Amino acid sequence: MADAPAPARRIDGKSFAERLRERVASAAARLEADHGVKPGLAVVIVGEDPASQIYVRNKGEQTVAAGMRSDTHRLAETTTQDELLGLIARLNADRGIHGVLVQMPLPAHIDSAAVLDAIDPDKDVDGFHVVNAGRLAVGLPGLVPCTPQGSILLLKDALGDLSGLHAVVVGRSNIVGKPMAQLLLAENCTVTIAHSRTRDLAAVCRQADILVAAVGRPEMIRGDWIKPGATIIDVGINRVPSSDPAKAAEGRTRVVGDVAFKEAEAVAGAITPVPGGVGPMTIACLLANTYVAACRAAGVEPERLD
Ligand SMILES: Nc1nc(=O)c2c([nH]1)NC[C@@H]1CN(c3ccc(C(=O)N[C@@H](CCC(=O)O)C(=O)O)cc3)C=[N+]21
Ligand SMILES: [Mg+2]
């Protein structure tokens, strides 16, 4: 019997993100030294969702560690839409703030689309505003959503030139799937966007040289959906019960991706783990976007960060 192929290389997003944050920090330090501008990021969180609280704390700590200003606005679950829009208007007008992020999801009584629409597109460091979606679609400079941007950096590091490769993106959200497809197209990939209604999803995935999983369903993508040697970017962050039944009974959880990692690892050429893959890149790219927004506000050409 032939030997099993070597397991996939693990793409280390955690250490790539650390290096990117160091480059952002030194570029931000030069911006402050040469132009007197310290990049500032405002993060707004409404309500008490524990997972959101952890993400927001991590963002704040990493922003400060990169030598930038971090303001966190913690609002009560009962905050009205008008109160939130009032805060956004003040942040839009604040010349010391270059990035505004409103943590999603918002409580059900608030219209998320109206809130995103209210953020100044040039401070929209999430890249979620329709103006930034439009800029990305037509190839104009703007602010690019952080998770897709981080995924592209990992892909280019792993593969070099992406030209001509067939990329399959599973998931069509406005925050990951659609912008990811736009960025892959800009890298000259042949792009397929697949989703929950796609017929024979497994067969579509098996055509992928690059497979991006952004569906939000734990371990949905199986080993036999993967072309041997393919590069897998797993965007999923799903909390599932601990695999130890005693711990699960206590409510303990673990984080898994959208890809069945063990199966995929035996077939793929390279794969991002969860945690430690795309997630840390999301925050690093948020800091990079804040730096770029601050440069543009000051009329300074941003340094290349890649
Ligand atoms: N306006 C807005 N923008 C966002 O970018 C946004 C948001 N709302 N709402 C929530 C999601 C989630 N998100 C993550 C960022 C980093 C990690 C991350 O660093 N994860 C680590 C740790 C994972 C863990 O152990 O929990 C990892 O994957 O290794 C995860 C999730 C940003 N989000
Ligand atoms: Mg993001």
From TrEMBL:
<dbReference type="InterPro" id="IPR020867">
    <property type="entry name" value="THF_DH/CycHdrlase_CS"/>
</dbReference>
<dbReference type="InterPro" id="IPR036291">
    <property type="entry name" value="NAD(P)-bd_dom_sf"/>
</dbReference>
<dbReference type="Pfam" id="PF02882">
    <property type="entry name" value="THF_DHG_CYH_C"/>
</dbReference>
<comment type="subunit">
    <text>Homodimer.</text>
</comment>
<dbReference type="Pfam" id="PF00763">
    <property type="entry name" value="THF_DHG_CYH"/>
</dbReference>
<comment type="similarity">
    <text>Belongs to the tetrahydrofolate dehydrogenase/cyclohydrolase family.</text>
</comment>
<keyword id="KW-0554">One-carbon metabolism</keyword>
<dbReference type="InterPro" id="IPR020631">
    <property type="entry name" value="THF_DH/CycHdrlase_NAD-bd_dom"/>
</dbReference>
<keyword id="KW-0658">Purine biosynthesis</keyword>
<feature type="domain" description="Tetrahydrofolate dehydrogenase/cyclohydrolase NAD(P)-binding">
    <location>
        <begin position="145"/>
        <end position="296"/>
    </location>
</feature>
<dbReference type="InterPro" id="IPR020630">
    <property type="entry name" value="THF_DH/CycHdrlase_cat_dom"/>
</dbReference>
<comment type="pathway">
    <text>One-carbon metabolism; tetrahydrofolate interconversion.</text>
</comment>
<feature type="binding site">
    <location>
        <begin position="171"/>
        <end position="173"/>
    </location>
    <ligand>
        <name>NADP(+)</name>
    </ligand>
</feature>
<keyword id="KW-0521">NADP</keyword>
<keyword id="KW-0560">Oxidoreductase</keyword>
<feature type="binding site">
    <location>
        <position position="237"/>
    </location>
    <ligand>
        <name>NADP(+)</name>
    </ligand>
</feature>
<comment type="function">
    <text>Catalyzes the oxidation of 5,10-methylenetetrahydrofolate to 5,10-methenyltetrahydrofolate and then the hydrolysis of 5,10-methenyltetrahydrofolate to 10-formyltetrahydrofolate.</text>
</comment>
<dbReference type="InterPro" id="IPR046346">
    <property type="entry name" value="Aminoacid_DH-like_N_sf"/>
</dbReference>
<keyword id="KW-0028">Amino-acid biosynthesis</keyword>
<keyword id="KW-0368">Histidine biosynthesis</keyword>
<feature type="domain" description="Tetrahydrofolate dehydrogenase/cyclohydrolase catalytic">
    <location>
        <begin position="11"/>
        <end position="126"/>
    </location>
</feature>
<keyword id="KW-0378">Hydrolase</keyword>
<protein>
    <recommendedName>
        <fullName>Bifunctional protein FolD</fullName>
        <ecNumber>1.5.1.5</ecNumber>
        <ecNumber>3.5.4.9</ecNumber>
    </recommendedName>
</protein>
<dbReference type="InterPro" id="IPR000672">
    <property type="entry name" value="THF_DH/CycHdrlase"/>
</dbReference>
<keyword id="KW-0511">Multifunctional enzyme</keyword>
<keyword id="KW-0486">Methionine biosynthesis</keyword>
